Amino acid sequence: MTDLTLTANKTNSNNLLRRDVRFLGNILGEVLVHQGGQELLDIVEKIRELSKSLRAVYLPELYDEFKQLINTLNPDNRHQVIRAFAIYFQLVNIAEQNHRIRRKRDYERSAGETVQPGSIESVILEMKENQISEDELQTMLSGMSLELVMTAHPTEAMRRAILDIHKRIAKDVMQLDNPTLTHREREQLREKLLNEIITLWQTDELRDRKPTVIDEVRNGMYYFNETLFDVLPEVYAELERCLDKYYPTQSWHVPTYLRFGSWIGGDRDGNPSVTSTVTWETMKMHRGLAIRQYDQRLRDLMRTMSFSTSIVDVSKELLDSIELDRSNVVLKNVPEWNNPKEPYRVKIIYMLQKLHNVMEETTKGTSERYQMASEFIQDLKLIDNSLRHHFADYAADTHIKKLIRQVELFGFHMATLDIRQHSKEHENAMTEILSNMNIVEDYSALAEQDKIELLNRLLNDPRPLTSPYISYSESTKECLDVYRIVHEAQLEFGHSCITSYLISMAQGASDVLEVMLLAKEVGLFREEANGDVRCTLQAVPLFETIDDLHAAPQIMSQLFELPIYRKAVSAMNDLQEIMLGYSDSNKDGGMLTANWELRVALNELTDTAKEHQVKLKFFHGRGGALGRGGMPLNRSILNQPPHTIGGGIKITEQGEVLSSRYSMQGIAYRSLEQATSALLQGAMLARYPQVNVEEEKWEMLMPSISETAQKKYQDLIFRDPGFLTYFKESTPLPEIGELNIGSRPSKRKNSDRFEDLRAIPWVFAWTQSRYLLPAWYAAGTALDKFYNNNPENMATMRNMYENYPFFASMIDNLQMALAKADLLIAKGYASMITDDSIRERIFALVEEEYKLTSKMLLEITGQREILDNVPVIQESIRLRNPYVDPLSYMQVELLTELRALRESGEDDPLLLREVLLTINGIASGLRNTG
User: Least packed by Cβ within 10 Å: which of 168, 531, 674, 728?
Assistant: First the structure.
C-alpha cells in the first residue's frame, strides 16, 4: 500500500474522531438546554470561546473579561458549568478511546498483508528474518515473564457507576461507523445516546463515602470479568498463530508468560483496613469469580457439544471418565442429561457439579469436586482429545483450546495476590516476640549486623518462637495472623494464589530476614532434618528512596551470602524478586535523578545476583502519572536494560491506568499485544545485544548530570523553609483527601512531615494545579550545567538523544510534562499563598527552571516547539487546554472561598462539592491523577 493511501486513511480516520467529538458535544449541548435552559448553554459557550481566544492570543483585557465572567457566576450556574466541562472531557475521552480501536481496525483492513508495527507478528517476522531458530525462540519464550499487578492506589477519581455509563456510550458510538445502519436506526442510536448522556448528567460523579477495601476488590475484579478473562487468551492465541505461520514445522503451545496479579486486599502498608480477614475474603471473592466464569463457559459449551454416538465414536477415556463421575458425583445443582447418546453433554453436567462443589466446605478432599485447577484441565483435555479422535478438530480448537488456556492463566484463584507491609511493622512484632521469649530485651535497638546474626541463628533453629498460650498486642497478633492466612490460602486455593510478601521501606537485610522468620512460624518456610529447605512465600524488598537504591546491591549481597537464605532462594527456582519504587524515588530525588538511579540499581543488582547464580525478577512500582514513572506499557518494558529482564518483570497497574487500558476489549488487546511484542524484543536484545560503543561513554556522563539535578531539586523541596507552605497553599492537597477515592489514608502517619506524605497525593496535587513539578523540575539546570555553553557538549546530548534509548526516553517524558504544565494557570494557584515573599520567590524559581528546561529540550531535540515529535499528543493537549482552563480558574476561586470560610471556623458542603467536581474534571481533562 502506498504512503499516499496511508496518509489519506489517517486523515479520514482523524476526521471520524472529530465527527464523534462534535456529535457527542452537540448532544451534551442539548442536554444542557434540556436540564438548565438556553442560558446555561450560552454561559458555557461564552466561557469556552473566551478560553479558546486566550489560548490563541493572550490579551490582559480578554483575561480580565474571562475572570470577571467566572467570578460573577451564581453558585447554581457555577455548579452546572463545572459539571458541563467535566462531562465534556468524559465524552472526549470516550471518543479518543474508541478512535484507538478504530485506527487499529482501519490499519488491519487497509494494510492487507502489511504487518502492523508494534504487533506480535512484526517481532516474530523480524526473528524469522534474523534467522533465529525454533529452539532459540522456544528458549526465549520459556524465559519470558510479565505480571501486571493491579493496585488499589487511590488515583481513579471516577465512580464505577460513571464508568459503566461510559462503557455503554462507547459501545453505542462505535455503531456510528456501521455503514449498514438505516436512517431510522441512526435516529434511534442518537436518541439512545441522548438518554445515556442525560443519565450521566443526572448521576452523581462523587462518592458519598470512602470505598471499603472490599469495594476496591470488586472494582479490580470488574476488569477480569469484563475484559481480561477473554482478552488475555486471545493474545496467547495470536502469538501461537504467528508462530505457526512463520515456524510451521513445530507444534506450538506457548508457556504462560503473561498474567495479572493484584495488591487489592493484600496491601496493608499504611492501611489498617486491610486485615487478615479481609485478605481471606478477597481470596474467596477471586475464586468465586473464576468459578462463575468457568460455569458460564461450560454452559455455553453445552449448547455446541451435540455430537452423538449414533454418528461418531468418542474416545474410551471419555466414556470411562463419565462412568467414574457417575459413581463419585451426586448431581444436586444441575439436572442430569437424559440423552446418553450425547456423551459430551453428560460429561459437562458432571463437570459443572464438580465446579460448584469447589465452593462447598463439605466436599473438601473428596472426589466430588476438583481439588486443583489441574484436574479441571485434565477433564477439558479428555474432551479435546475425544473431539480430535472423531475429527472434530475445529470444535476443539474453537471451544476447548481457549478454555484450557483460561484455566491455565486464572486457575481457581483468578489472580495471584501479593501481600505488602511496612518494614517497621515487622520489626515491632519481632521486638515483642523476642522479648516474650527472653531472647533479647529490645530487638529494635540492636545494630543492623547484630540483627542479621540473631535472625540468621533463629532461622537455622527449628524451634518455634510463638505460642498460642502467649498473649500478644493487637498489632503483633494481626501481623502473625497474616502469615497464618497465607498458609491456609495456599492450602485452600493453591500455592500460586499468594507467593510474594513485599516489604515497604526495606533499608537493611534484617528487614527481609524478619519476614522469613515470621513465615517460618506458620510453616511457609522451614528447613527439614536432611537440610532441604521448603519455602512457598518469598520476602520481596521494596527499595524506594535514592539512599535505599544505593544500598540495595550490598543488602542483597549480604542476604545471598547467608546459606539459609540462599537455600530459600533455591527453593523458589533460584529466582529472587526485588521491587523498585518509582514514586518515592521521584519524590525523594526528582525525575531525572530517580530515573538514572533506578537504572544504576537495575544494573548493579543484576550483577550482584549473577555473582551468586541467582536470577532476578524486577517489580517496577510505576504509577500512571509522569511524576511516578508512568508511560505506555510497551515503552516501560523496552526502557529496561535488556539483560535485566531475564528473570521476568512485574509492573503495577493502577487508578486511571486500569480504566484507560482495560475497560474496553479492543484497547486492552492492543496494549497487551504491544507488551508481548516488547517482551519478545527485549528477549532478543538480551540474547543478541546491540553494542553501541559510545553508550559506555554516555553512561559515564550521567552521574554528574544526575547529581546536579538532585541538588537543585532537593534545594527547593527539602532545604527551602518556605516550600511546604508554598506546596500546601498553592495546590488542592488538603481537599484531595476529601475526594473519597480510596480506602487508604493519604499519609503513612498522622503527620505533616513531607516524608510521611504519600507520593500519589504529592503528584496528584501538582497535576491539578498545572505545575506538574515532580515530572520536570531540576532537569533544565542539570542539562544546562553539562552544556556549559560548549557546542561540543550540546552535540553530545543531541547524539545521546538520537542513539541512547535511556536518554531519549527521559527527554521525551520531560517534553510530555512541560506540554501538560501551564505556568500562567499555575500562577493563579500561587495567588492563594498568603505570604507574598514565599509566593514571589518560589514561583520565580519554578518559572525560571521551566523556561530553562524548555530551552534545553528544544536545543537537544532540534524542534521548534515542545512535542513536535508526537503531533497527535501535541494536538490533543492543544485542543483540551481551552476546556481545562475554566475548571482551573474556577478551582482557584472556590479553594480561596472555601479556605477563607474554614479559617473562620465555618464550612460549606456545597462549596466543597464544587471543589471536588473541579478536581474530577481536571483529572479527566489532563487524563492524569497520580
Answer: 531
